[in-house]
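Human:
I keep going back and forth on a fold encoding question. Comparing notes only helps if you start from a blank page. Show me how you would write down a chain together with its backbone fold. Write it directly below this note and I will take it from there.

Assistant:
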Amino acid sequence: MAATSNAVVLIVILAITFSSSSAVTETQAPSPPALTCTEELVMFSPCLPYVSAPPNNISDAPDPLCCSAFSTSVHSGAGNCLCYLLRQPMILGFPLDRSRLLSLSQI
């Protein structure tokens, strides 16, 4: 008998918990997930032809997609991950031109 009443109490507690949590999620819009550094560096890939060091630098000017990705990263506050490119220029497996990386903020 005690086991049955304990089961009923547990079911009531679970029902209250799930109903209150679903009410909260219905009224609040879920926030978009924050980008990881890996995702942000992948978004930065249109910049690689410009910021790569020789012989991999195949562009004399950044692509418009590069400017957009850089601007989005900086304005979203997620631009901290781009600092890894400056601190560890071989992080992608090939060298990057630090002066070109820094010039993106001016372009």
Remarks:
- Helices lie at 2-27, 37-43, 48-51, 64-75, 83-87, 98-103.
- Residues 2-15, 20-26 have pLDDT under 50 and may be disordered.
